[in-house]
Automatic annotation (TrEMBL):
It comes from the Bacteria. The chain crosses the membrane at residues 6-26, 62-88, 94-114, 126-148. Residues 2-196 form the CNNM transmembrane domain. It is a multi-pass membrane protein. Keywords: CBS domain, Cell membrane, Membrane, Repeat, Transmembrane, Transmembrane helix. It comes from Limnobacter humi. Belongs to the UPF0053 family. SUPFAM superfamilies: CBS-domain pair (SSF54631), FAD-binding/transporter-associated domain-like (SSF56176). This is CNNM domain-containing protein. The keyword Transmembrane helix applies. It is found in: Cell membrane. Residues 276-332 form the CBS domain. InterPro entries: CBS_dom, CBS_dom_sf, CNNM, FAD-bd_PCMH-like_sf, FAD-bd_PCMH_sub2, Ion_transp-like_CBS, Transptr-assoc_dom.
Length: 427
C-alpha cells in the first residue's frame, strides 16, 4: 500500500467511502419508498419501477446483497487506513488509535448517516435509478448471498419465523383514513372529504339518514276529493306516501305526475287514484346504508319507508339521502325539507329549526354534538334536560352553547347555536 502515490491512496479511500455510501443510501431508499406509488408506476410501464418492485419482492436477497457489499467496503476501508498508518508511523499505538477514530468518523458520517438521511428524504429519486446497479450486484454475489440466506433461514426456522412472507401488505380502515388525511395537495379538499365520508358510511344506518315521519310529505286518503286534489296539485315531490287517517294504514306510494292527465281531463276521483297507487317499499330499521344503497340498485327503487320491528313507519329514505352523506347536500330540496337558519355574525351564532338533523348541524358548522342518541336537535335537548324546557334557557353540550328560543307543542321549535371559535396556535 505504501508503494502507491498519495493521490492514489486518497482516491482509493474516497472510492471505498463512496461505494459504502451508495449501498447505504440504496438500502434506506428501497425500504422507505412508497409501495403503492411504486406499484402505480410499475403498472404504467416505468422500467425502473418494475425492476425496483421485483427487487423488493425478495427482500432477503436485496438486504443480503446490500449489507454484504456495505460491510465488505467498510472493512476494506478500515484495513486500508490501518495499513497506511502502519507504513507511515510503524506500530505506534497513538497513530493507530487516531487512524481508527478518523476512519470510524468518516464511515459513520460519509458512508452511513448522510447517505441514509438523503435516501429517507428522497426515496423515489434514489431507489429507482439505483435499482439497475443493485440488480447487477445481486447477480454478482448470488452464490455468497445464497449461502448467507440459507444460514439465516436456518436460524429463523428455529424460532418459527420465515424470511419470505406470502401475500401483499393490506391496510385496515384506520390506516386508509390516515393516508387520505395525509394526501395533502395530491387530493382536492372536496374529494378528500368524500373519501373520509365513505369511511364513515359503514357505521351509519338508514335511521341516521332518513327523513323522520314528522317531516315527510304525505297524502291522507281519508280526506275529501277536493282537499286531496289540492294537496296533490301542490305536492313538492313526485312520489308521496298515501295513508288512510294515520300511519297504521299505508296504502302505498303515489306518483304525482301520473295524476296530471286526470287533472287535465277533469277525471280525478279516489277510484282513479287507487288504480295509480304503487306498493310501498319497506326497509327494516337499522339496515346499514351501504347495504341499502345496493338494495336500491338491485330492486330499482328510489324511495323506501323505514319501519321498526312492529311495522310502524319511522321515516323515509332515498338514494339521495345516502349520497348526501358522501358529497354534501343538494340544493334542490323542497321547502318541506328545509330548515330556517339565520346567522348572526356578531355573536357567531345561528338560529336553527329544532327539527334539524344533528349530523347536518355538525357538518354545516363543524360542531361535535353527539350523534349516537337522538337524531334531531330537539330530541338532543329534551334528552339532556329530561324535561320540557322554557324559552331563553341555555345549555352547553360538547363545548357548544345552545339557547332555546321558542318552545311549542312540548318541543323545541327554534334554538340559537353559538359556534365555538377555533383555537389559535400557541394559545
Amino acid at each position: 500500500m505504501s508503494e502507491l502515490p498519495f493521490w492514489a491512496q486518497t482516491a482509493l479511500l474516497v472510492g471505498l467511502l463512496l461505494g459504502s455510501g451508495f449501498f447505504s443510501i440504496a438500502e434506506t431508499s428501497m425500504m422507505a419508498i412508497n409501495k403503492y406509488r411504486l406499484k402505480a408506476m410499475a403498472e404504467q410501464g416505468v422500467r425502473s419501477a418494475v425492476l425496483t418492485q421485483k427487487l423488493l419482492n425478495r427482500t432477503d436477497r436485496l438486504l443480503s446483497t446490500l449489507l454484504l457489499s456495505n460491510n465488505l467496503l467498510n472493512t476494506a476501508t478500515t484495513a486500508v487506513v490501518t495499513s497506511l498508518a502502519i507504513s507511515w508511523y510503524g506500530n505506534n499505538e497513538w497513530a493507530l488509535s487516531i487512524a481508527t477514530g478518523l476512519v470510524a468518523f468518516a464511515i459513520i458520517v460519509f458512508a452511513e448517516i448522510t447517505p441514509k438521511v438523503i435516501g429517507a428524504a428522497y426515496p423515489n429519486q434514489v431507489a429507482l435509478p439505483a435499482s439497475y446497479p443493485i440488480a447487477f450486484f445481486i447477480r454478482l454475489f448470488s452464490p455468497f448471498v445464497w449461502l448467507i440466506n440459507q444460514f439465516v433461514e436456518g436460524m429463523l426456522s428455529r424460532f418459527g419465523l420465515s424470511s419470505r412472507q406470502s401475500g401483499e401488505t393490506s391496510l385496515n380502515v384506520d390506516e386508509l383514513r390516515s393516508l387520505v388525511l395525509e394526501s395533502g395537495h395530491y387530493l382536492p379538499h372536496k374529494q378528500r372529504s368524500i373519501l373520509m365520508n365513505l369511511f364513515e358510511l359503514e357505521s351509519l344506518t338508514v335511521d341516521d339518514v332518513m327523513t323522520p315521519r314528522t317531516r315527510m310529505e304525505v297524502l291522507d286518503f281519508a280526506k275529501d276529493e277536493e282537499t286531496l286534489a289540492l294537496e296533490i296539485a301542490t305536492a313538492h315531490h313526485n312520489k308521496v306516501p298515501l295513508i288512510e287517517e294515520d300511519w297504521a294504514t299505508v296504502l302505498g306510494i303515489l306518483h304525482v305526475r301520473r295524476m296530471l292527465a286526470l287533472f287535465q281531463n277533469g277525471e280525478f276521483s279516489k277510484e282513479h287514484l287507487q288504480k295509480l297507487i304503487q306498493p310501498a317499499y319497506f326497509i327494516p330499521s337499522g339496515t346499514p346504508v351501504n347495504v341499502q344503497l345496493q338494495a336500491f340498485q338491485e330492486n330499482k327503487e328510489r324511495m323506501g319507508l323505514v319501519v321498526d320491528e312492529y311495522g310502524e313507519v319511522l321515516g323515509m329514505v332515498t338514494p339521495e339521502d345516502i349520497l348526501e352523506e358522501l358529497i354534501g347536500e343538494f340544493t334542490s330540496h323542497a321547502p318541506v325539507n328545509q330548515h330556517r337558519a339565520e346567522t348572526d355574525e356578531d355573536e357567531r351564532a345561528v338560529t336553527v329549526d329544532g327539527a334539524i338533523d344533528i349530523r347536518e348541524l355538525n357538518r354545516k358548522y363543524h360542531l361535535h354534538l353527539p350523534t349516537d342518541g337522538p337524531r334531531t336537535l330537539n330530541g338532543l335537548l329534551l334528552e339532556h334536560l329530561q324535561d320540557i324546557p322554557e324559552s331563553g334557557l341555555g345549555v352547553k353540550l360538547h363545548n357548544t352553547v345552545i339557547e332555546i328560543v321558542q318552545v311549542a307543542d312540548r318541543s323545541v321549535k327554534t334554538a340559537k347555536v353559538f359556534i365555538p371559535r377555533k383555537k389559535q396556535p400557541g394559545r
